[in-house]
Amino acid sequence: MKTLIIAAHPDDEVLGCGGTIARHTAEGDNVSILFLSDGVTSRENPSQSLEERNKSSFEACRILGANAPIFLNFPDNKMDTIPLLEIVQALEKIINKIKPEVIYTHHAGDLNIDHRITHNAVMTACRPQPDFFVKKILSFEILSSTEWNSNSFGRQFIPNYFVNITKNFNIKIKALKAYDAEMRSYPHSRSYQAVEALAKYRGASIGFNFAEAFYAERILI
Question: Which CATH class name applies to 2-219?
Answer without folding.
Answer: alpha beta
